[in-house]
Amino acid sequence: MIKEIETRRSIRRYKPDKPVTKEQLNQLIHAAMLAPSACNTRPWEFIAITKREVLNEIAQMHQYAKMCETATAVIIIIALPQSDMPAGYFPQCCGAATQNILLEAASMGLGSCWCGVYPKEDLMASVAERFNILKPKIPFCVIAVGVSDETPASRGFFEEGKISYIE
Question: For a surface tag, which of 2, 49, 52, 151 has the fewest beta carbons within 10 Å of its beta carbon?
Answer without folding.
Answer: 2
